[in-house]
Design a protein that fits this description.
The structure is a single chain. By secondary structure, this protein is mainly alpha-helical. 72% of the residues lie in helices and 0% in strands. The protein has two domains: 58 residues, no CATH class; 71 residues, no CATH class. The chain starts with a helix and ends with a helix.
């Protein structure tokens, strides 16, 4: 029932094109600062609602939840080139195929990152990871 009401509200906001409220903009601003994202204005209420939902979902992801290149970049601060280098090293070291074994390669990179979390994770995520290990 509640989900249906939320869907109706989203559809109404999407069709209305009314600009985002100041409260929505403050929430987006705070979450973007915490998560290192940038968005441009003006935003409709609908766009603001979608951004807030996306940012709040990102906020709940932990280092243990890493699953792809974008997660690795987010938690380590690495460039895509660095991630690709690590993946290439795994391919060479273990004789894996870059396309066929993509997920296994990512899992091995993530495992290596978490095995030496203090060295590789950004400090705020390292602290979060340490807390989750206790």
């Amino acid at each position: 029932m509640k989900t249906n009401r939320v869907q109706q509200m989203l559809v109404a906001m999407k069709n209305n094109k009314e600009l985002a409220t100041s409260k929505q903009l403050w929430v987006i601003n705070d979450l973007c600062e915490q998560l290192g994202h940038n968005y441009s204005l003006p935003l409709s209420k609908y766009e603001a609602c979608l951004i807030i939902t996306k940012l709040k979902e990102e906020e709940t992801i932990t280092p243990e939840d890493m699953s792809d290149e974008s997660d690795i970049i987010r938690f380590t601060g690495w460039t895509m080139a660095t991630v690709e280098e690590w993946k290439d090293d795994i391919v060479i070291e273990h004789g894996l195929h870059p396309d066929d074994d993509h997920q296994e390669i990512l899992e091995r990179v993530i495992m290596m990152i978490l095995d030496d979390a203090k060295e590789h994770l950004l400090n705020k995520y390292y602290i979060q990871w340490l807390t989750s290990q206790a």
